[in-house]
Amino acid sequence: MTSPFEIEEIFPDDGEHQVRLPRRQSGNSPQGMAVTLLADYTLRTREWLPSAAIVALLAESGVSPAGARTAISRLARRGVLEGSRQGRHSSYRLSRSAAGNLSAGGSWIVTSTATARAWDECWTIVAFSLPQQHGAQRRALRAQLRWLGYAPLYDGLWISPYELVPAARRQLADLGPGAVTVFRGRQVELDAVIARDPLAAWDIAAVAGQYETFLGRWRLLLPEIAAGRVDGAAAVRARTEVMDTFRRFPVLDPQLPLRLLPPDWLRVPAREVFAAVYDGLAGTAERHVRAVVAPFAGDSRPGIRAHTTADLLAGLDVAGGTDDSRAPESVTRGR
């Protein structure tokens, strides 16, 4: 099992949203933190934030000013952010493509951990073969399959207990003739010595350990949240960290049927703790972000709005176009 997962696997590109989201790194990634911050408070509105305000917010999480400015610049070059300049002052917002990816990804995170699907005891098998010179295409396919809940049982043979969804069909259709075969059927029981259990494609013990670590870390904060003892800066840091951690679980634990998993599987308790932290700190964190941005923006920035897990579950409509009331002298999209 690959860990930590790249953010492309968590919020993948599709045919309509070609944007290169930053790779996840060990520890805190300034680019990943910047994306999470902007998504958590400006995803619906794509509000412009002064670069100095973004730097100040990242500084509260331990990112140096130089590191923050480098992260912003790289995100603009990747097409994740749009930049504007008015005199000597620059502002940034999520690009429409990035916002679309992040909105879909957020909905997927809470949906896939909130429901349990029925299972007919059949497996979907995707077998593919791509020439060595098509390495980038092979990596993109593997990332997309993992995002869709598939895992490699053998090299070039990926499995899932669920039907092939339209998104996967479209991805596979782009591979070209003779590149892939898809089957669906029941496992034939063989001698235990030679048989490979389909569950071996996932490291179930490692996933359980990740859940236990997550719950041990975040349950400790719940009494503090309930008592209102988490201040603004700490609320923003906690929401950023809990989202950055929890969003990996649908990839680590791709909603396998409960009958295949150990008793007392911790998917539901982990989701409940995530929602308690993320939702419980939303108001405090939003007020703090507004307070940090205000000295740099010169106005209240009504587009700064924290969303909750219920909002993500319902789906967030992403604003499009340019807000003419804040029209910059120039708008650029990093390439």
UniProtKB/TrEMBL annotation:
Instruction: Tell me one GO biological process term.
Output: DNA-templated transcription
| Occurrences of domain Transcriptional repressor PaaX-like central Cas2-like (ranges) | 117-189
The Transcriptional repressor PaaX-like C-terminal domain, residue ranges? 202-290
**A Pfam family it matches:** PaaX_C
Entry's InterPro entries? Answer: PaaX-like_central, PaaX-like_N, PaaX_C, WH-like_DNA-bd_sf
Q: Which Gene3D superfamilies match?
A: 1.20.58.1460, 3.30.70.2650, Winged helix-like DNA-binding domain superfamily/Winged helix DNA-binding domain
**Transcriptional repressor PaaX-like N-terminal domain boundaries:** 31-96
Protein known as: Transcriptional regulator, PaaX family
* The species this protein was found in: Micromonospora yangpuensis
